[in-house]
Design goal:
The complex is a heterodimer of chains A (112) and B (114). By secondary structure, chain A is mainly beta. Chain A contains no helices and 12 strands. Chain B is 0% helix and 51% strand. In chain B, strands 2, 4, 5, 6, 9, 10 and 11 form a 7-stranded mixed β-sheet that branches. A 4-stranded antiparallel β-sheet of chain B has the order 1-3-8-7, with no helix packed on it. Classes of the chains: A mainly beta (112), B mainly beta (114).
Chain lengths: 112, 114
C-alpha cells in the first residue's frame, strides 16, 4: 500500500536558519505529492504540490522537488521566520483516488 | 467565503452522551471526509463519502456514524461518547479525482469527553 514517512519533530530553529524537513514515500504508479501546513489552532491548508517527477512546488519561500529516483519530496526554506512555526504534513494522492495518504506531521518551532 | 464550515468549535460531553459534529461545504465537492487528530498520531481517517448517499469507513470508524443526504453536508455522529474520543476533529472536502486533488479543511472541532 501507499505510505509517507516524515522526519520526527519537533524541529527547533533560530530565525533566518535554513530548514529541511525530509519526506519519503512508497506508492504504486505516479502519485501527486503535497505539503500541507497547520498553524496553531487551525485546520490544514495546502502549502505546495507537485504532480510529476522533477516538478518543483513553491509557495511563501518554501520549495519541494518531486524526486522519483529517491521517492522523496523534501521541504526546504532558505530563511525561516517565527511566523513559520507550525506543523507540516507531507502527503500523496495516488492517481484516480479520493483518499490521500498523510505522514504523521513534523512540528517546526522557530525562535527569535 | 467559500470553504468548509465546522460546528461547534468546542464541545464538552459526559461519557455516554451523544452529539453530532456538523460539516458543510459550498464548493460542490464530491468527496468529504472526517479525520481525528491526536498528539503523536497524526491524522486518522474516520469515515468518508464520495457523493450523496455513499459513505464508507476509514481507518478508525468504531463509535462514529455518518450520512450524506446532500452534496453540501456530512455530519459525524457520536452515539455514546467515550473518553477515548477526546480529540480534535477535522472535516475535509475535495473535487473528483483527476489532477492533483487538494483537500480543503475546516477549522476543526475540539471535543472533550469527561
Amino acid at each position: 500500500g501507499n505510505s509517507v514517512t516524515q522526519m520526527e519533530g519537533p524541529v527547533t530553529l533560530s530565525e533566518e536558519a535554513f530548514l529541511t524537513i525530509n519526506c519519503t514515500y512508497t506508492a504504486t504508479g505516479y502519485p501527486s505529492l503535497f505539503w500541507y501546513v497547520q498553524y496553531p489552532g487551525e485546520g490544514l491548508q495546502l502549502l505546495l504540490k507537485a504532480t510529476k517527477a522533477d516538478d518543483k512546488g513553491s509557495n511563501k519561500g518554501f520549495e519541494a522537488t518531486y524526486r522519483k529516483e529517491t521517492t522523496s519530496f523534501h521541504l526546504e526554506k532558505g530563511s525561516v521566520q517565527v511566523s513559520d512555526s507550525a506543523v507540516y504534513f507531507c502527503a500523496l494522492m495516488a492517481g484516480g483516488s479520493y483518499i490521500p495518504t498523510f505522514g504523521r506531521g513534523t512540528s517546526l518551532i522557530v525562535h527569535p | 467565503n467559500a470553504g468548509v464550515t465546522q460546528t461547534p468549535k468546542f464541545q464538552v460531553l459526559k461519557t455516554g452522551q451523544s452529539m453530532t459534529l456538523q460539516c458543510a461545504q459550498d464548493m460542490n465537492h464530491e468527496y468529504m471526509s472526517w479525520y481525528r487528530q491526536d498528539p503523536g498520531m497524526g491524522l486518522r481517517l474516520i469515515h468518508y463519502s464520495v457523493g450523496a448517499g455513499i459513505t464508507d469507513q476509514g481507518e478508525v470508524p468504531n463509535g462514529y456514524n455518518v450520512s450524506r443526504s446532500t452534496t453540501e453536508d456530512f455530519p459525524l455522529r457520536l452515539l455514546s461518547a467515550a473518553p477515548s474520543q477526546t480529540s480534535v476533529y477535522f472535516c475535509a472536502s475535495s473535487p473528483p479525482p483527476g489532477g492533483a486533488n487538494v483537500l480543503t479543511f475546516g477549522a476543526g472541532s475540539r471535543l472533550t469527553v469527561l
